[in-house]
Design brief:
Blueprint: H1 4-18, E1 23-28, H2 39-46, E2 50-57, E3 60-67, E4 70-78, E5 83-89, E6 98-104, E7 108-114, E8 120-124, H3 127-131, H4 145-154, H5 159-164, H6 174-183, H7 197-216, E9 258-262, E10 265-269
Antiparallel strand pairs: 1-6, 2-3, 3-4, 4-8, 5-7, 6-7, 9-10
Helix pairs in contact: 1-7, 4-7, 6-7
The structure holds a DNA duplex (16 and 16 nucleotides).
Length: 288
DNA sequence: ATCCTATCCTGGCTGC
DNA sequence: TGCAGCCAGGATAGGA
């Protein structure tokens, strides 16, 4: 699923093809992809606008627009689970799953493709509306080990759902949370306020190491969905320690990887390397 | 404050 | 082989 490393890869690869281009036309093939804006309003906002920058925040692709050399809003994409963005020459076969197309002034077109239709491509004049509630970027200098330790202790949530919460730390998804927890040797069911300083430091470092390496490998592709804008699969799935490896040996200790459900999410871990939190068990009346 | 469930979607997988 | 039913998952809303 596209998480921070995949979205970073998408932004990097489409940037040189989009920077400086103007939008010449818009084709909306699935209205809900626009997130509530009418196709007509979307077209009016986009046609004639010029792209000045392409970047990423959390799992959002952000495209800066201007008109007559003045800022003119943003195009913001979220791939959710199966979304893809391609920028290709005219005539490129975008498949039946294309939802929105932007025709550019150099003959290329941006194709927003999404099998499951959860992805969104918004136009907004208020970026804060979409990005305002996000937590810090885990690879930025805002995300310090001290801040992280303090915030873990300020909450009483299970590590797995907390790390998936985009308002806590922005950009992690199911894959990279499982991988980070394994690297930090922390159990997904640990309560955040039980994490000791040495452990939160380990988790902080693990998150950054996993994301950095995954970006180097251009993300993870283990099913038919995620591909880079050049159509290539990522490479980080070859380095998965736990994700999608149920029953396979732990890369560290060889014991079988376990899969459970936490907060409605498939959760993979090693029960040897990632010690279970002490369960507060009910005292039995008839205990021996 | 935190957790749980349903919702949005579809292709692919499982089991009969 | 065919087909129904289930599953995956990011984000969010509403209820417990």
């Amino acid at each position: 699923m596209p998480e921070l490393p995949e979205v970073e890869t998408v932004a990097r690869l489409i940037r040189p093809r989009l920077a400086g281009r103007s939008v010449r036309g818009v084709l909306v093939r699935w209205k809900r992809t626009l997130g509530g804006m009418s196709a007509r309003a979307f077209e009016q906002a986009l046609v004639g606008a010029r792209i000045t920058a392409v970047w990423r925040r959390a799992k959002f692709v952000v495209i800066d627009l201007e008109r007559d050399a003045q800022p003119a809003g943003w195009l913001v994409g979220h791939l959710r689970m199966t979304g893809r963005i391609h920028v290709e020459p005219a005539g490129w076969d975008a498949s039946a799953y294309e939802r929105v197309r932007l025709e550019l002034d150099d003959g290329h077109a941006l194709h927003f493709i999404d099998v499951r239709k959860f992805g969104r491509l918004w136009f907004t004049r208020d970026l804060n509306e979409l990005l305002g509630a996000l937590g810090p970027e885990p690879l930025s200098s805002d995300f310090t080990a001290a801040w992280f330790a303090q915030e873990l202790h300020a909450r009483r949530r299970l590590l797995k759902p907390l790390l998936l919460d985009q308002s806590f730390v922005a950009g992690l998804g199911n894959i990279y949370v499982d991988e980070s927890l394994h690297r930090a040797r922390l159990h997904p069911l640990r309560r955040s306020d039980s994490v000791k300083p040495v452990e939160s430091e380990r988790l902080h470092a693990a998150i950054r190491a996993v994301l950095t390496r995954a970006i180097e490998r251009e993300g993870s592709s283990f099913d038919a969905f995620y591909r880079t804008p050049e159509g290539k699969p990522g490479g980080y799935q070859d380095e998965f320690a736990v994700y999608d490896r149920e029953g396979e040996p732990c890369v560290t200790c060889k014991s079988a990887i376990i899969k459970i459900v936490v907060g409605q999410r498939g959760t993979h871990f090693c029960r040897t390397c990632q010690r279970a939190p002490r369960t507060r068990r009910r005292r039995s009346v008839t205990a021996p």
